[in-house]
Every structure is written in C-alpha cells, then in structure tokens.
C-alpha cells in the first residue's frame, strides 16, 4: 500500500515493498550500494515530486497488468546482451493523444528514474498525456550511438502497439535531463537523430539542464578540480571513447548538427549548476535564435543540478509551461 511509503525510507527499503519489486531495478539503474542506503528525502522529494510519483505508480498498477515492456525482441538479446537493459515504462494518460518519451539523466552511467522519470510522467499524466520512460543503455565506454538506437527502437515498438497503448504517433515530444537531455537533443538533429533512422521529427523537445555541448564540457573539465575532472573524463569516455579529443567529441556536440529544421525547443537550466555549465544552454539558445527555430528558455539563479520538476524553485511549473509550448507549436 502507498501509505507505507515515507520520505525516511531508504531506496533499498522502497525496492523491497512487494508491489514495487518489479521496479527495483528501475528507480535507479546500475544501482550501487550508496544509492540503496540513501533516503528518499536525500533526492529532493518535495522539489522533485517523488512521493506523488510513487503514488501514481500504485494507481497505474491498479489499472494495468503490465507497465514495463521490453523494447528489443528476446531473440536479439543473445547476439547483443546489453539490449536486455532497454525498457519502456508506460504511465498512461488520456486516449488518442500524442505522447512524451522521457529520458532520465545519469551521466550515461545510470539513470535517475526516481528523480527525472516517474515524477515527470506523473505530471504529464495529470495534464492528460501518456508518458513512456525510456531505460536506455548506459555504463559503457564509447556508448553512443547505442542510446540513439534505443530511442529509434522504442518509437518503432510504440508505433507497432499504438492501438494497445491508445496513443497517436503524430506530434510526439521528447524530454530529457542532463545526459538524457543531451540524448534528446541529439535525437532532434537530422544527421544523428530522427532522420538518420527514417523516423518522424519530434514536435517538441523539453530539455532540463542538458549536457548539450560535449565540446563545452571538455573545456570546463580542463578547469575543474582533480575529483571533478575524473568524473568528467568518465562521462566523455562514454561519448567519445578512451582516446577522445575535441574533434572526436564534435560528433555528438549538438550545436554542430543543428539546422533550421531542428524541433521547437524548451530549455530549463540553473545558473549555479555545478555539473553542467549553463553556458551550454546559452550556446543552444543562440543557435536556436540564429536558425529561427521556435523556442522558449527559462533560467534561474539558484537551483543546482537534478532539480527535476523544480517545485518551490524559480522554475516551479516549468513542465506545464513546456506542454503549453508544445501544444502551441504543434
């Protein structure tokens, strides 16, 4: 029962609740011991809307017998075992409406689904829209383009089951956060994203503190402390491999691949973000303006990183605003 869940529970305790056991690997992926031991309150429950999102999971469980879906057929797992990681978590909204694909962040090492997945889906459901949280492949050096392959496979899976899910494929949106924001932003490019896979362009992107510019990230890394530099190196290795260079990182640095056909874009970021420099979002804003792509930007002075919904901050209500933007541009 949802009533048994409290902010003082650890993630491990949350995962041990019988009804929630199927989600135990999908609150945080690639979960480490330190994550298991931390309390829900440590992840910004009120700011991110975690408890209401868990309540929504219980509600969906009462409505549906299946919520978690394999994206790739099991026959493909033997040849490429990491495809077994890739899932879609369905949080249903009103029938016969376009949907939102949600890409949580986590530095391409793991996914913070409890912070940037379920709460986002919960709010989208409240606005009448179905949300599909994508669990894409992470935790590998030279990971890309596998997560882009995963978006393409997920969209093809949804197209094949659109009647079952009661969704419209036209005018879908993609939202992503941090590294998931980078992934969503790359999907919006013709060269690396939707057109390269022969799929329709998203009607809008909602990008939360996205690590859009790998080149900017490299420049920031060179000025960082030793501990920060070590974490940044691992992140860039997942994008460009062990021998990454500025030139090789340009392959997935979004600002080099945008054109006038780039999807309408809604950007949110905090100026004091210690993980992803807001300059990356400023650079993207400049590109969107130069290309005359419809966009809306909301920045705040203080909010740090991983603020998710941003409840009670200067960005409170940003997701509702982003949905209105999507409705206007589509």
UniProtKB/TrEMBL annotation:
Entry superkingdom: Bacteria
Record-linked InterPro entries: AB_hydrolase_fold, BD-FAE-like_dom, GDXG_lipolytic_enzyme
BD-FAE-like domain: residues covered: 97-288
Protein name: Alpha/beta hydrolase
Keywords, alphabetical: Hydrolase
GO molecular function: hydrolase activity
Pfam family, one: BD-FAE
PANTHER family per UniProt: AB HYDROLASE SUPERFAMILY PROTEIN C4A8.06C (PTHR48081), PEPTIDASE S9 PROLYL OLIGOPEPTIDASE CATALYTIC DOMAIN-CONTAINING PROTEIN (PTHR48081:SF6)
Source organism of the structure: Lacrimispora amygdalina
């Amino acid at each position: 029962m949802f009533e048994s869940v409290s902010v003082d529970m650890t993630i491990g305790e949350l995962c041990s609740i019988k009804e929630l056991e199927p989600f135990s690997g999908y609150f945080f992926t690639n979960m480490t011991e330190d994550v298991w031991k931390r309390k829900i309150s440590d992840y910004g429950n009120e700011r991110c809307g975690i408890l209401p999102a868990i309540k929504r999971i219980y509600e969906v469980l009462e409505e549906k017998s299946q919520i978690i879906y394999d994206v790739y057929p099991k026959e493909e797992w033997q040849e490429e075992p990491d495809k077994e990681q890739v899932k879609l978590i369905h949080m249903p909204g009103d029938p016969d409406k376009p949907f939102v694909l949600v890409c949580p962040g986590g530095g391409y090492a793991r996914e913070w689904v409890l912070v940037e997945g379920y709460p986002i889906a919960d709010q989208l459901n409240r606005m009448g829209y179905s949300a599909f949280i994508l669990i894409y492949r992470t935790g590998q050096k030279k990971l890309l383009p596998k997560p882009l392959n995963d978006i393409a496979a997920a969209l093809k899976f949804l197209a094949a089951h659109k009647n079952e899910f009661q969704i419209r494929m036209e005018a879908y949106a993609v939202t992503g956060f941090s590294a998931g924001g980078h992934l969503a932003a790359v999907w919006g490019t013709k060269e690396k994203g939707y057109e390269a896979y022969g799929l329709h362009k998203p009607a809008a992107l909602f990008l939360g503190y996205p690590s859009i510019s790998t080149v900017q990230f490299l420049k920031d890394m060179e000025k960082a402390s030793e501990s920060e530099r070590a974490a940044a190196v691992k992140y860039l290795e997942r994008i460009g491999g062990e021998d990454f260079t500025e030139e090789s990182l340009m392959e997935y640095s979004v600002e080099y691949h945008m054109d006038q056909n780039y999807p309408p874009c809604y950007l949110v970021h905090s100026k004091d973000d210690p993980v992803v420099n807001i300059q990356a979002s400023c650079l993207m804003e400049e590109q969107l303006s130069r290309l005359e792509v419809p966009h809306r930007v909301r920045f705040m002075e203080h909010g740090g990183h991983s603020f998710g919904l941003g409840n009670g901050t200067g960005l409170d209500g940003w997701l509702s605003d982003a949905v209105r933007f999507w409705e206007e541009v589509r």
